[in-house]
Amino acid sequence: MQRLTPRLRKDGVDLELIMLIRTILAASKEIAFRVNQGALSGILGSTLDENIQGETQKKLDVVANQLIKDMLLDNEQVRALASEEEDTIVAGTENAPYIVAFDPLDGSSNIDINGSIGTIFTIYNARNDVPNDSPEQFHQRGKYQVCAGYVLYGPATMLVLSTGGPTRCYTLDATHGGYLLTTEALDIPSETQEYAINGANQRFWHTEIKQYIADLIQGEEGIRGKRFNMRWNAAMVGDVHRILTRGGIFCYPSDTKDPNQPAKLRLLYEANPLAMLVENANGKACTETGDILDILPHDIHQRVPVIMGSRNEVETCLNYYKQ
Ligand code: AHG
Ligand code: MN
Ligand code: MN
Ligand code: MN
């Protein structure tokens, strides 16, 4: 089985970018080790702090953030970084070529129950038209990502990565400590009978998504004419990993739950990297009105509605918003 670095070289990826990806993965191996140790590593439970989004931080949110941040700041390829757990951007090496954004630990509510969790990351070329330490470094559309990936800490630790070409899948071989290529190119089936949405939010949904989900639930007796099944991981990486593997649709629509937050998921370090991975695996990733990868960000923590997965099903869902 092929190792990561030779595979990336064969894909024509710049050596500097390969070194940067390897830095993130070195941090991911540290996190994987601690996750595997569970309660023995003292990383379960909450801190007394909140992040800028008002979420109580879990110990592992903070530990994972610190590990990735420290390693990235030691890497001279990084001009600035942004993280879910950092209020604002963190400056790295002046005039370095890349900027990195990450969700150090996705699926925080799964940490204490030994459920699937992950680390999501994205890399862009740094901008030379704004200062090194300006948040505007990150005001770049998702379609300009030079690399997107996640590491899923599940029963196996897996890396899913795209550097612009196909979305490839690697598995961490704990015996030698390296990521080995296990799926050359993920290919999401365009049709599906599986959906993922947090149904507990139903009373906050807008009419379009209410009607779409109601039609799915009707199954073979409704206008869809086929039976659907529902899966919800409470970790977007887990849901998207299932969809990349066997198809499906993931929806976290806008809702009226919090008048200050029209949607839940974060564009920069959740929606955009996962959208690139889904699109490069022949899937589709949208908000309720357009492609996620076309949005010009104005805030590093800005939130967006997300509908992604099997191409035809995503288009069917979007048609409800067009009527
Ligand atoms: P995070 O743990 O990084 O804050 O992200 C959690 C996100 C996402 O992973 C997941 O799909 C969603 O929140 C879960 O939302 P619910 O609490 O509505 O299930
Ligand atoms: Mn969080
Ligand atoms: Mn997250
Ligand atoms: Mn997180």
Structure report:
- This is Fructose-1,6-bisphosphatase class 1.
- One of its GO terms (biological process) is gluconeogenesis.
- Belongs to the FBPase class 1 family.
- Its cofactor is Mg(2+).
- The chain has 323 residues and is of the alpha+beta class.
- It folds into 2 domains: 4-183, Fructose-1,6-Bisphosphatase, Chain A, domain 1; 194-322, D-Maltodextrin-Binding Protein, domain 2.
- The protein has helices spanning 4-10, 15-37, 59-73, 207-218, 236-246, 267-279, 311-322; strands at residues 46-50, 56-58, 78-83, 90-91, 98-106, 117-125, 147-153, 157-162, 168-173, 178-183, 194-196, 229-230, 249-252, 284-286, 306-309.
- It has an 8-stranded mixed β-sheet, with helices on both faces. A 5-stranded mixed β-sheet has the order 12-11-13-15-14, with helices on both faces.
- A hairpin with a 5-residue loop joins β1 (46-50) and β2 (56-58).
- α5 (236-246) packs parallel to α6 (267-279).
- It starts with a helix and ends with a helix.
